[in-house]
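This follows on from our talk about sequence and fold. Can you supply me with one protein entry, sequence and fold together? Could you add the entry underneath, on a fresh line?
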Amino acid sequence: MYRYLWDGDIILHKRDYAEANRPNTVVTEAGEVTLDRPEPVENLITWVYDSDSYVPTAKIVGDRHYSIISDYIGRPVQAYDDNGNIVWQADYDIYGNLHNLHGSRQFIPFRQLGQYEDEETGLYYNRFRYYDPKIGNYISQDPIRLAGNNPTLYGYVGDLNKWADVFGLDFKTVDFSGHPDLYQGPGKNTVKIKLTGDRSSDFTRAYKEAGITKADATGYTWHHVADFDPKTGESTMQLIKTSTHEANLPHKGSAGQFADYFGVQYDSFEAKMKSFEQGWRKEPKRQAKKITCKK
């Protein structure tokens, strides 16, 4: 038996135990459905991630700790034990297949950012659907259909060297987790905010959450990661070099997801009002039109 504990879109724990030790489901006299004994907690694995991202940084098994090193787009490439010995290493081909593998394949089951390999099928679980690394495509159609900007419906991202599809929804989303061009100064380079419907206000919130000012990050800009949660209004923001951000345009981030969800244009008064109506920002003021008199 395998059990998994998720925190939103990331897996925190995995454990397994023999089928014979599985508790029985019983119904009490009060009609409550419960178990006749607690489930065993054996072979517990805990995963640790980089702050506010989907990049795994450590694996904990009992009293053993392993550090995970990832490349610039968040794919694990090495793992080390407490003594600094390498215990796992791999390279990737253009479709995300492992090559030059050192160690057990399933010791690190994470693959391309947002993907978790299913040991039995060899497919990569990508949140909303499964990805086949042998063909470089998903095995099912995009659940959001053409809204994912991918006319093939089965396709992965357009450029594996730059882009990642964390949830299996968007054809061209960008996540800079682990990228060398992320801001490295004081404060944070990755934060979560509630979207305001306006990029300028989003940036102001992001700087505040990061504990820095705009002047501290000259040459950098905030990137909206495509993980907008319409229930909470939250999205991840990454502070990346402006040149790197522009080199990956056009792309779809959480600002675009917000706009699609509410049917508005981001940065418009209508978008700001949608955020206000959800309780994510103060009421916006509509700019008065400037009227000039002609004599």
In short: The mean pLDDT is 87. Residues 103 and 259 are 45 Å apart (CA to CA). Residues 2-113 form one domain.
